[in-house]
Amino acid sequence: MRIRFTAAALVVLFVWSLQSATPPQTTHPVPVVRPGDRMTAPRLLYKRGPAYTEEATKARLQGGVVLDFVVGPDGTLSDFRVIQPLGLGLDENAIEAVKDWKFKPGEQDGKPVAMSATAVVNYNLASVVGVLENSRMGWHLGRAVFQTPEGASRPSFLKANSEAPEGHLPVTVSAVINERGEPVTIHVPMLIAAPAEATDLEAAIMEFVRSWRFSPALKDGRPIAVSGTFDLLLSKP
């Protein structure tokens, strides 16, 4: 079922848990039931859309955040887990939005029970920058995640060149964001193209990623270098 919002579109899917009890770190006081007969799934009664973050808009980040959570027998939500992240604050905003959703709890043999559910919260750039402008962008990110050490903040995206390489393909790029917030040690996997064309496109992608700027990660108040992985989608013909 697709539900449209001005901020983003939400696709909600409910999946019963395959576990007989909640995970070890659960905060829910009762077991999560297993799927079976005489059972009805939680029913969504109220929802609100998530908010874009400023840096996610600058990074042209769009896609879906997949969340797993438990709908309690009283309809309260708990045990949120990000199954598929987007990054740049959109995962946290997706959780905050879903926390405000209201559910009729799932039932087993006519009695309310705790039941696992999955929600896919989609973010669409057209909702924040306009359909026409979005069609002219030429690129966007589908994921931005960082491997930050414990106790450190992640880098924050600041800007990128507006012009992206010519192409129409997704590519996963890895890079180290150094202490000055600059991407270095950039790696682009082998592209499916003629050798000369692939070399040229790889060089153009590396140069484009090199134009990105971040506020660096911090640990104990000092900038540190961290690795990041980015799903870059080029959409120029």
Summarize the SSE layout with pairings.
Blueprint: E1 2-4, E2 9-13, E3 39-40, E4 43-46, H1 54-58, E5 63-71, E6 77-84, H2 90-99, E7 102-104, E8 107-108, E9 111-112, E10 115-123, H3 126-129, H4 131-135, E11 139-147, E12 156-159, E13 167-177, E14 183-187, H5 195-210, E15 213-215, E16 217-219, E17 222-224, E18 226-236
Antiparallel strand pairs: 1-2, 2-10, 3-8, 4-7, 5-6, 5-10, 8-9, 11-18, 12-15, 13-14, 13-18, 16-17
Q: Characteristics of this structure?
A:
about 240 residues, alpha+beta, TolA/TonB C-terminal domain, 2 domains, 5-stranded antiparallel β-sheet, 4-stranded antiparallel β-sheet, about 15% helix, elongated, disordered N terminus
What does this structure look like?
It is a single chain. The chain folds into two domains: 2-123, TolA/TonB C-terminal domain (2-Layer Sandwich), CATH 3.30.2420; 138-236, TolA/TonB C-terminal domain (2-Layer Sandwich), CATH 3.30.2420. It is built from five helices and 18 strands. The chain has helices at residues 54-58, 90-99, 126-129, 131-135, 195-210; strands at residues 2-4, 9-13, 39-40, 43-46, 63-71, 77-84, 102-104, 107-108, 111-112, 115-123, 139-147, 156-159, 167-177, 183-187, 213-215, 217-219, 222-224, 226-236. The strands form six sheets. The protein has a five-stranded antiparallel sheet, with helices on one face. Strands 11-18-13-14 form a four-stranded antiparallel sheet, with helices on one face. Strand 1 and strand 2 form a beta hairpin.
